């Protein structure tokens, strides 16, 4: 870990976060619905983007580790951590660990929603 790698992740994260904000606001204005279209669009496009980047980096592009981190951890991570979740689930499947991937997906969704509910209840119970 170098200072340059930390800066590249921070810069990519800033760009990804701004993109997430803009996509979320824009899709909310377009849909005029209570359904979380913005989050769905962000998660799907973020997953597509990290998949495309992972494929290009593995097979086509000769990028430095710093640039790889800028694109994947920084931009994709700032845009959505769901993209990393999707890539991790895929890598487990690719390694023949289908059951582990399924458990990871179910556990991630169930435990994350459960943790959110627990935190909301805890905070609401505070005086």
UniProtKB/TrEMBL annotation:
Q: What does this protein do?
A: Fluoride-specific ion channel. Important for reducing fluoride concentration in the cell, thus reducing its toxicity.
Recorded GO CC terms: plasma membrane
**Reactions catalysed, as given in the entry:** fluoride(in) = fluoride(out)
Q: From the Swiss-Prot or TrEMBL record, what is one GO molecular function term?
A: fluoride channel activity
- Annotated membrane-spanning segments are 40-58, 70-93, 99-123
Primary location group: membrane
Biological process terms in GO annotation: cellular detoxification of fluoride
Residues that bind Na(+), according to the entry? Answer: 77, 80
Q: Which family does it belong to?
A: Belongs to the fluoride channel Fluc/FEX (TC 1.A.43) family.
Tell me which domain of life the UniProt entry assigns to the organism this sequence originates from: Bacteria
Q: Could you tell me what this protein is called?
A: Fluoride-specific ion channel FluC
Q: How does it sit in the membrane?
A: Multi-pass membrane protein
Where in or outside the cell?
A: Cell membrane
Against Pfam families, the record matches this protein to: CRCB (PF02537)
Q: Which UniProt keywords apply?
A: Cell inner membrane, Cell membrane, Ion channel, Ion transport, Membrane, Metal-binding, Sodium, Transmembrane, Transmembrane helix, Transport
- Organism ancestry: Bacteria, Pseudomonadati, Pseudomonadota, Alphaproteobacteria, Hyphomicrobiales
The activity regulation comment is:
Na(+) is not transported, but it plays an essential structural role and its presence is essential for fluoride channel function.
């Amino acid at each position: 870990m170098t200072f340059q790698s930390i800066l590249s992740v921070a810069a990519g994260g800033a760009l990804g976060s701004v993109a997430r904000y803009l996509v979320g606001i824009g899709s909310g204005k377009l849909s005029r619905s209570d359904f979380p279209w913005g989050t769905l669009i962000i998660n799907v496009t973020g997953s597509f983007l990290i998949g495309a980047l992972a494929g290009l980096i593995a097979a086509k592009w000769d990028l430095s580790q710093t640039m790889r981190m800028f694109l994947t951890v920084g931009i994709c991570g700032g845009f959505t951590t769901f993209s990393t979740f999707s890539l991790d689930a895929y890598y487990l499947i690719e390694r023949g660990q289908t059951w582990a991937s399924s458990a990871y997906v179910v556990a991630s969704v169930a435990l994350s929603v459960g943790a959110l509910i627990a935190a909301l209840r805890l905070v609401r119970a505070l005086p």
